[in-house]
């Protein structure tokens, strides 16, 4: 028993692993392990029985957590957009734009995956939508099955890291940081990861062109009367939009100064990107609208189609992310606005009816309940684990690693990578992150950087063969038997499970490369954050002393207690009374105990200089 009591924390953690290996649901495994070891710890005297009395307050705290309201809002927004046909329109239009080049369909899937990630934030919706829409087209035109499967699964998982990602909300909650800061930190890494996917497809198009053929001419549907593709006007509109966006980005401080009515000298990079992108898109929308209303004939069918299809998702991105980055709305408020905008867009497009709305609400309720039950179980487990000094055991275990911060980050990311084979990001966020966060904070690691780093690593949990959820989602919609294509009337072979697994491996490696890049260059994350305001206590103390000395009277005089100076009237020692009685005793010195000095102003100065400068 003494051995169990002395090693209670590691035994408790091992007990949780046993519960999970037995196949119990994660939420119930966490709760059962927490309660079982809680009552056992009380019996063994590891901690007092009052520990369990804290549990109801912890659970009430979960219910009162406003930050977690963003989870159902963003989930509902993503499901409504997925059912409103936005993904289908985007894939069709962007596929036509990139189709004539080798690898164009794969590039279209990546770009649409990034747009869906920035609007939906739900991996399942993105993977299933692109699997249903783009996979048959890629198979129709002889794309390599491994690449087609891998690019769809990987592009769908961009919703894991590109805001408004659900995992970033949970990560911010567990690390005690702002969701807005977590979104700002993940914005650039998310699009860098998308860039690495694009680079991989481009390399295949150069060195393995047969894997990524171009669309044949008969498959390009947006043609002009003269037979041209209409790319000239599209390039002109894109150039005008880009010029406006670049101009706005370069003069963003002037725009903020005009908007806020006070001088602004610096604007965060993410704010520049979102605001400039929306400004350029607005100009394209104005041009396309004028062309359609007045029938000017300036734009081709392709250019007009691209503009009007891209406006809704980009508008939604600004409504959600733009308001969050600009500080107009909190993430919860941004999620609520996004859900309402998705409802309006769905009904406006006449793609959404009450049946689809009920399905979206039911799926949102299930996911929110799933998150809530895992949080309740994780809170129960963490309460008992902390009472058994589990965090100290984890801290001693990890701080003793060689290599300091870098060694800690390498070991932690290797551990997360292998745990992701068996646990998804919800479970990792609630089980592992609360144990690692305090240790990282004590080692001086920026928790926003740490959270984004773990989020990129956890993204591999969707891609791990054979347990990746994105692979399961794709398997559910990929053809399992031969079928006859409805356009070409050719017999198309099925996509095997092994082909899906092999296609995922290169993208898992790309994600690991991104993890290494973030470890080597933390400024990619921290550079997008608002700069902390430095406060020098010594300067504040000097200013206070100047104000005290300039005030006059009271403590502002050299003699703060108003005693007359030597040589002034009343400064002489009291004389003995003329009747011969003893002289009155000298007035006692002012009590120095209240301030630690005869001169309170000097005492204040000394205490302020003794305090370290806070930043």
From TrEMBL:
Keywords of this entry: Cell inner membrane, Cell membrane, Membrane, Transmembrane, Transmembrane helix, Transport
Membrane topology reported for the UniProt record: Multi-pass membrane protein
UniProt xrefs under Pfam families: DctM (PF06808)
Chain segments annotated as transmembrane: 7-28, 34-55, 67-85, 105-135, 147-171, 186-207, 228-253, 273-294, 306-328, 334-352, 364-385, 405-426, 504-529
TRAP C4-dicarboxylate transport system permease DctM subunit domain: residues covered: 13-523
Subcellular location: Cell inner membrane
InterPro entries reported for this sequence: DctM, TRAP_DctM
Organism: Comamonas terrae
Protein name per the record: TRAP transporter large permease subunit
Function: Part of the tripartite ATP-independent periplasmic (TRAP) transport system.
Chief localisation class: membrane
Stretch list, region Disordered: 548-615
Low complexity composition bias: residue spans: 582-594
């Amino acid at each position: 028993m003494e051995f169990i009591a002395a090693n209670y924390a590691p035994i408790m953690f091992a007990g949780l692993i046993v519960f999970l290996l037995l196949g119990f649901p994660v939420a119930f495994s966490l709760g059962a392990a927490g309660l079982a070891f809680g009552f056992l710890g009380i019996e063994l005297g590891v901690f007092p029985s009052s520990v369990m009395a804290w549990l109801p307050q912890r659970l009430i705290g979960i219910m009162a957590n406003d930050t977690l309201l963003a989870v159902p809002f963003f989930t509902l927004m993503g499901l409504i957009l997925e059912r409103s046909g936005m993904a289908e329109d985007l894939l069709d239009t962007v596929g036509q734009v990139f189709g004539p080049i080798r690898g164009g369909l794969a590039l279209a899937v990546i770009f649409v995956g990034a747009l869906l990630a920035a609007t939906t934030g739900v991996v399942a919706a993105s993977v299933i939508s692109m699997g249903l829409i783009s996979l048959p087209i890629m198979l129709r035109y002889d794309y390599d099955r491994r690449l087609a499967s891998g690019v769809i699964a990987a592009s769908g998982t961009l919703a894991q890291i590109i805001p408004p990602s659900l995992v970033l909300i949970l990560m911010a909650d567990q690390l005690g940081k702002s969701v807005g800061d977590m979104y700002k930190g993940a914005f650039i890494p998310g699009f860098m990861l998308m860039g690495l996917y694009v680079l991989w497809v481009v390399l295949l198009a150069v060195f393995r062109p047969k894997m990524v053929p171009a669309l044949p001419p008969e498959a390009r549907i947006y043609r002009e009367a003269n037979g041209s593709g209409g790319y000239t006007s599209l390039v002109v509109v894109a150039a005008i939009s880009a010029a406006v966006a670049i101009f706005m980005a370069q003069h963003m401080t002037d725009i903020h100064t005009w908007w806020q009515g006070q001088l602004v000298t610096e604007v965060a990079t993410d704010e520049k990107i979102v605001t400039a992108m929306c400004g350029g898109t607005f100009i394209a929308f104005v041009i396309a609208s004028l062309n359609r209303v007045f029938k000017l004939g300036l734009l081709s069918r392709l250019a007009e189609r691209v503009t009007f299809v891209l406006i809704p998702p980009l508008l939604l991105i600004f409504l959600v992310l733009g308001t969050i980055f600009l500080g107009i709305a909190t993430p919860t408020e941004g999620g609520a606005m996004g859900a309402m905008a998705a409802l309006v867009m769905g009904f406006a497009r006449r793609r959404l009816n009450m049946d689809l709305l009920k399905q979206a609400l039911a799926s949102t309720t299930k996911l929110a309940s799933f998150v809530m039950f895992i949080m309740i179980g994780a809170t129960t487990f963490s309460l008992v684990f902390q009472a058994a000094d589990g965090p100290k055991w984890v801290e001693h275990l990890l701080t003793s690693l060689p290599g300091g911060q870098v060694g800690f980050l390498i070991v932690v990311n290797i551990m997360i990578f292998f745990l992701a084979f068996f646990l998804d990001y919800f479970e990792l966020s609630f089980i592992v992150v609360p144990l690692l966060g305090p240790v990282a904070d004590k080692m001086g690691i920026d928790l926003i950087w740490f959270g984004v780093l773990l989020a990129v690593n956890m993204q591999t949990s969707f891609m791990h063969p054979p347990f990746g959820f994105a692979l399961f989602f794709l398997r559910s919609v990929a053809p399992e038997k031969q079928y006859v294509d409805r356009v070409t009337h050719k017999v198309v072979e099925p996509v095997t499970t092994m082909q899906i697994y092999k296609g995922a491996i290169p993208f898992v490696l790309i994600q690991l490369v991104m993890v290494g890049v973030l470890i080597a260059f933390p400024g990619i994350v921290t550079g997008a954050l608002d700069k902390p305001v430095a406060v020098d206590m010594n300067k504040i103390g000097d200013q206070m002393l100047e104000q005290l000395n300039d005030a006059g009277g009271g403590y502002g005089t050299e003699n703060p207690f108003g005693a007359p100076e030597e040589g002034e009237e009343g400064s002489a020692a009291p004389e003995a009374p003329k009747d011969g009685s003893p002289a009155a005793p000298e007035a006692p010195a002012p009590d120095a105990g209240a301030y630690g000095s005869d001169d309170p102003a000097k005492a204040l100065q000394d205490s302020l200089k003794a305090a370290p400068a806070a930043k």
